[in-house]
């Protein structure tokens, strides 16, 4: 008993607490810009979420699910996915992929696509394994690979200048086949594909996917295919699921998100689809981390998919209506940015676009007082001084390539007309002040 009493009263802990696996993964500019946007901005086109509500049928499904007074909807459900949801996902995507999916073994429900990605890297990547990532990329891929002890290997999409003074399109950004092939090695475990791509809006063509697939098969590696923007493709473009290509089902995990699919990013329902051999380690990671996802949200997403299955391809389908509405918003923002000289790159998909702010930089009283990239300093200045939030392109590049493009910011156009108009007003006013001293 007495030795306890002899402890000093203030026995502060002094040993290092952070596990080594977190080294170099702690910076997150999203937190910073989102905070700045909340403090200064009147118009937030920064983070990727709609400021309009999810469709009525989904909200009504939520209300109905609540009013049915099924007590089980408030309790734990099956760890790997609420039965009605895995069943409908298997049915829906089985149809799209042209194969029978088993709801119990080919589908895993996750806390948004984000947790699906986390499960993939934790489940597949060993210390020293290389993972090929196509730049520009959704930034968490790099951090999650590193946290798993893996080594990210980057391959850039390279822009080709557009013809005759036309605006650039995301399709002008392409992989160099020889350069891509050179990134594969003995140590490569997986490649991450994101089509449609955030932040560029590129929708990979069949030829591009064939090339990626051929290399994956040749080197016998996994493909982690992040398809959260699968319904957001424009101008009649087709979203091709790489898992449907020859030899790819067996080595691909396809990731989706109800947040993006039904404009309800706060519900955090996502999923992975793939062969049982790949999903087994994902289930293990899932059961050792979150174990299961919110039952009610899964139930409602299941009802949303039930409706979409019935209306598949019809004009009333949300998966037909949403891209139609977003294409109009895209065109509107493209026109608005082009009119003030902030040159947009026209995206073929997603609800993001990149714009070149070179013509506006003379207004920006820059002080390079840190190693923070120029576009990031510009974006922060713009929030504080113009009340307009956008994300710098450099956050979608690895450390070595952060300064490759200095003058691009990413806008999200999944916004109400009033929000886009307010952004336009800010840009117009800025342009006038700029040109008339
Ligand atoms: N992948 C990409 C490419 C994304 O842009 C996002 C969200 N910004 C996610 C995954 C995460 O999706 P969720 O909200 O379903 O977790």
TrEMBL record:
Residues 43-423 form the Aminotransferase class I/classII large domain. Pathway: Amino-acid degradation; L-kynurenine degradation; kynurenate from L-kynurenine: step 1/2. GO terms for cellular component: cytosol; mitochondrion. It is found in: Cytoplasm, Cytosol. It holds the Pfam family Aminotran_1_2. Signal peptide: none annotated. InterPro entries: Aminotransferase_I/II_large, Kynurenine-oxoglutarate_AT, PyrdxlP-dep_Trfase, PyrdxlP-dep_Trfase_major, PyrdxlP-dep_Trfase_small. It catalyses: 3-phenylpyruvate + L-glutamine = 2-oxoglutaramate + L-phenylalanine; an S-substituted L-cysteine + H2O = a thiol + pyruvate + NH4(+); L-kynurenine + 2-oxoglutarate = kynurenate + L-glutamate + H2O. GO terms for molecular function: cysteine-S-conjugate beta-lyase activity; glutamine-phenylpyruvate transaminase activity; kynurenine-oxoglutarate transaminase activity; pyridoxal phosphate binding. Its cofactor is pyridoxal 5'-phosphate. Keywords: Aminotransferase, Cytoplasm, Lyase, Pyridoxal phosphate, Transferase. Its EC number is 2.6.1.64, 2.6.1.7, 4.4.1.13. CDD domains: AAT_like. The keyword Transferase applies. Coiled coil: none annotated. Belongs to the class-I pyridoxal-phosphate-dependent aminotransferase family. Homodimer. This is Kynurenine--oxoglutarate transaminase 1.
